[in-house]
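Example record

One chain of 145 residues, shown exactly as stored in the release files.
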Amino acid sequence: MAAASDDTHGDMTPMLDLVMQLLMYFILCANFLGQEIDSTVVKLPDSASAVPLDKREGDILFVNVNEKNQVVLFGKDPMTMAEFEYELVDRIGPRAPKDDTGRILTTIILRADAGADYGSIFQVLTLCKKQHFRYFSTRLNIKGT
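Predicted structure tokens for this chain:
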């Protein structure tokens, strides 16, 4: 009888390659999720409604209004209301998850800077509602005149 070979270990290179790719994927995703609610974009006012966000709330679109009344979306430069409407109509709306009746399931989390005007906040909410977004959560404190 022939002697059994001592080389019974398989090549581990493909397994290690897969593990490294998965590790890098999760590191990158976790980093982007933290940047969506970055506190340097919008300075939240002191208010009970301006609490830190829970990242486990489901499908969320973070819409920030800065002190210059510009809209800031994750990964994009500050934009005017017209540019924000374009984003909603052509980019965000068609990709938003919908239920079996066609209603958009995405929750809009509106975060407004303490120096933002009420008119800009109202305009953002109006544009979102016009594009059939129905679920909102706000983190703001309106200034008195």
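Notes: The helical segments are 13-36, 81-95, 118-130.
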